[in-house]
Amino acid sequence: MKSLKRLSVYESLFIGSALKWTFLSIIIGLVVGSFSTLFIRLINIGTSFTTKFNYYYLFLPIALFLSSFLIIKLAPDAKGHGTEKAIESVNKNNGNMKISVVPVKLLTTFITIIFGGSVGLEGPATQIGGAISSFIGNTFKMNTMDKRRLVVCGISAGFVSVFNAPVGAAIFACEVLYIGKLSYISLLPSLISSFVSYYVGLYMGNKPLIFKIKYVPNNQIIAFIEILFFGVSIGILAILFIKLVKFVEIAFKKIKIYPPLKGIIGGIIIIALVYTTNSFTSLGIGDETINKIIMGNAPSKFSFITKALTTSLTLGCGGSGGILTPMLFIGSAFGNTWAQLLGSNVAFYSAIGMAAFLAACSNVPIASIVIAMELFGNNVGIYAAIAIGISYIIVGHESIYPTQFIMSSKTPSLKVKTNIEVDNINKSSISDK
Question: What is the pTM of this model?
């Protein structure tokens, strides 16, 4: 009888917790999904208007100046590409984010993107989702653990509004916090808020991203070997991109002038770059170009390089926006170029490149495999999983998100400090084991 009573108590606690978080997750999904979808539609309207003019991007230096100026004056926490602030909120700030970030992040991202800044929407969407969730948690005086879980729900709800892969978005929110650990305690709430936000977006007119790639390699063994080498290449490319983003950011910090003026300098450099290389597709979000690349259209063979440069410059000089969509551009464009050089199927390698580069830069292998399955189907997803696994190991403990916490080494042969931010890993040593 005692054991039965104990079991009933345990089960009542689990059921109560599940009901509580189902309710909270639905609320977060509804609020964040509605807000993020409106934000995306606003960006699309603004972009559609400005791109009607042939030389709209000539206003980019002014836009970057204004973006930096507004962030400094109104909300310094809105600086950066967004997702890293949401991660920091969970890992270091007890789930606290300032709600003042939301309008400033909206405005500065809008200004940056409509005039050609090379950034994405997912970073601002996750930061906005996290800030709204944190505000709700503080309003109802929730404890620290609950606020952290609520912010994870906000991350997934904001992410899926842009990416339209609900299961992958939910796992991304739980996985992106740490290297070597997944927040299982947040998985159910994250899934529910992601799906609710996803359906809110569909109801409000978002179109799901589904690419029908029917290609299957004729020789499975050769394809497997090629994918292994491709995964290594993606991992090396991810390291170079992460280093580039950090290098450009540090370089602009060393310029001792009024910070918003750096936006003018960065904008001029970006304009000069796209003019001299004729790489105008590197401006803006680049989602239409990504769609064309995935469907098999061949971009410039060096478009992944110009996109990496324009993104690093936009963020480094004070622009506001996400970095994940540019990463999808870079990964898919590199895969496309790889396929052209080898004479392989360009859509196949573009899709795998996109998923593997996301996994390597963000340290989210499980989420990336699921996203590949959701967007491209099993035929591509099973091969993408191989490249994802390889690239995730090759990139080591580098990360595009400096606020990620490292919880375990990726290899027992290398000892690293754990439970600290990625950027704070100063010493590594070769293990004797």
Answer: 0.92
